[in-house]
Amino acid sequence: MIAGISIYEILTVTSILFFIGIYGFITRKNLISILMSIELILNASVINFVVINKYLYPDILQGVFFSIFIIAVAAAETALAVSIIINLYRQIASVEVKDTETMKY
Amino acid sequence: MNISYTILIPLVPLAVFFLLGIFNKKIKPAVSGYIGVAGLSTSAALSFYTAYQYFFVSGKVDGVYQTFVEKITWMHFTDTLHIDMGVLIDPISVMMLVVVSTVSLMVHIYSRGYMKGDEGYTRFFAYLGLFSFSMFGLVLATNLFQIYMFWELVGVSSFLLIGYYYTKPSAVSAAKKAFIVTRFADLGFLIGILIIGNYTGTFDFETLNSVNPDTGELFLNWASTSFMGLSVITWALILMFIGGAGKSAMFPLHIWLPDAMEGPTPVSALIHAATMVVAGVYLVARLFPMYFFVEDGYALNIVAYVGAFSSLFAAVIAITQTDIKRVLAFSTMSQLGYMMLALGVSGYDGHEGVGYMASMFHLFTHAMFKALLFLGAGSVIHAVHSNYLKDMGGLRKYMPITNITFFVAALAISGIFPLSGFWSKDEILVAAFEHNKLLYVVGLFVAGLTAFYMFRIYFGIFWGKETTYKHTPHESPLSMTFPLMVLATVSVFAGFIPFSEFITADKAGFEAHLNYPLAAIALTFGIGGIVLAAVFYKKENDLADRFANGFGVLYRWAYDKFYFDEIYLFITKNIIFNLIAAPIARFDKKIVDGTMEGIGNKTVIISKRIKGIQSGKVQDYAFSFIAGVVVLALVFIYLWTN
Questions:
Q1: What was the pLDDT predicted at A37?
Q2: Chain A residues within 8 Å of chain B (Cβ atoms)
Q3: For tag attachment on chain B, is the N or C end more exposed, with fewer CB atoms within 10 Å?
Q4: Which residue of chain B has the CA closest to A27?
């Protein structure tokens, strides 16, 4: 329990964070920005894990550990994504998402 | 008598065909000619040996010539109904072997000279080999199905040889015409065969033709089903006669024969005079007991009248034609009509069967002198490079051998004593006289016409006006004149063969006597025709033209072959194509194809519309995904809150 802060407030914050991430993911033109938006989404879910664990089962730490896993996976994912973006940049000299439309009909 | 070696007679030309066909480009023309001649010589030697063995060594047993059959079962349907392949040796097949091999050999020898320097020399001999194979196979067939197969094969060979000059549009269309017309007629033949197979349960000639000597009826039993007042077997026989009429160019299926003259002249001599066109006559002769006994010869009567009409019809047209090969073509049709007529008026036993014997006799002699006429015409065409009478005249000085042999053949076909045509034609007229006076009168009239048109072209070519030629015509080489001389000799002496001893309907033979009054009348008509032709055409004069003008429109009609080509064209083009085929084609195009194409087109259109969804933009996909999630979430929330 965090004094003075109810679960609703925290969940509201994470929801806002999540939808900011979604919004960024859909509207950003730059691949790096899109990556950052994804990080926001992940962070929102990580906070949710921790908070829900804390409020529902304060005795066990599964949610907290899970959030650490997610952070590790997110780091790996980011490394991978950045390397893809760098390679893409070498190929087409651009990191704009509109230039990566070859995979279509 | 062991007859298994006769299978070689068709197989040797087949081997020649494959040899020349496969190594077409590798064999030098000079060699291929010799190969063809050698192959056919083998066949001819075997044929003559067979004839000798059959008629003189084996001979009659109990006063009847035996039938020898050697066969293997090819397709087995029931115990009685099966398709065999094999050889059948009886008097008419032996006679046909002799005819076909002789004429074919002569044509092979002749072609070596006639086709010299032609580009497709080897191909030509390959086709001749194929044709000889098919014709021998047809002659030796043991059952209806085998004869039908070889029947189609000769049709194909004929198609190939008519269209031999395949760069010439007229030759191509003539080949197509011949093939389509005969093929159309063969449909009747096929249906007839199937009816016979269905109702009698056998295709075998021996079984079909066996006659019970006690009752004088066919052994054969069939369910007496009748259709439109005639027994089904009669219908089958009529249908098969339609097939025969197509091959033998009987009215009204004759239209292909004159056009078939587009082929090289040796081909016309071999196929369209002596051998293939008599296949129809041979078919009727082959099934003669059936034709004669089923329903008292109803079908046979049709044969007689069709034959008589065709012979008259063709003879009238022949008088007016100016292309010498076409005259000969119509003459062939006319003589084939004669043979049909003779078969049609024939009886079965003993001397009653004189018509049958006369028909076969005429087939034999006609093959010889008509082949000779064609080869002679070929020699003339070779010399003056034209088919038309107007380009000829006075050739007797330049081509003595051709002149004499052509003269002999013309005398023979006109039925002048003592050449072969006289004897055979006389027998036909005797048969007609004894059975049907009307047909006799027709036959007699045609005999006169035959002599007239034949001497019309004879005088037109070798006498008549003195034409000046660009190149002085010269006699053909020995390879061409040798067959002429051989055939001329045969044409002179073939009449003395006692045919009635060998080939009769009941296979027993009888002694034929010359009927002096009838022979005298026929001879008078023949000589009358010749004299008339001599008056008109021997010296250049305008008598003939004035005479023709006297006939006015009739002459015009005959010249245009009574517009049968146009009638057929009208029927096929305006009625069949425009009224039947075109609507069906439209139905096929619009409805059947339309449905299928519509399905395809609609799929394409729809896919074009929706393919934008796969835009390749990751953010679009993400948007639809999230939108979907949101919608689902709303749906679930809605459901849970109720």
A1: 92
A2: 22, 25-27, 34, 97-98, 100-105
A3: C
A4: B619
Chain A touched by B80 (CB under 8 Å): no
| Cβ count near B5 (within 10 Å) | 13
Contact indicator for B161, B267 with CB cutoff of 8 Å: yes
- Write phi, then psi, for B68 (nearest 5 degrees): -110, 135
Q: Confirm if B405 and B487 have CB atoms less than 8 A apart.
A: yes
- Measure in Å the smallest separation between the Cα of B613 and chain A Cα atoms: 9
Cβ of B609 under 8 Å from any chain A Cβ?
Answer: no
Nearest CA in chain B to A26: B619
pLDDT value at position A7?
86
Which residue of A26, A98, A101 is in closest CB contact with B622? Answer: A26
| CA-wise closest residue to B87 among B78, B79, B96 | B96
| Residues recorded for chain A | 105
Nearest to B6 by CA among B77, B69, B80: B69
- Residue whose tokens read 């729809």: B606
Cβ contact, residue pair A104, B618, below 8 Å: no
- What contacts B394, CB < 8 A, 6 or more positions away? B462, B463, B464, B465, B466, B467
Residue B422 neighbours by CB under 8 Å, 6+ apart: B412, B415, B416, B495, B519, B522, B523, B526
Smallest CA–CA distance from A102 into chain B, residue: B616
Q: What is the pTM for the complete model shown?
A: 0.78
Q: Which residue among B611, B616, B622 places its CB closest to the CB of A25?
A: B622
**Residue in chain B nearest A23 by alpha carbon:** B623
* pLDDT tens digits, one per residue of B322-381: 888 888 888 989 888 888 888 888 888 777 788 888 888 888 888 888 888 888 888 888
Q: How confident is the model at residue B421 (pLDDT cuts 50, 70, 90)?
A: confident
> How much is the mean pLDDT over chain B?
84
Q: pLDDT digit string (tens) for B579-621? A: 888 889 899 988 999 999 999 999 999 999 988 888 888 888 8
Residue B227 phi, psi (nearest 5): -140, 120
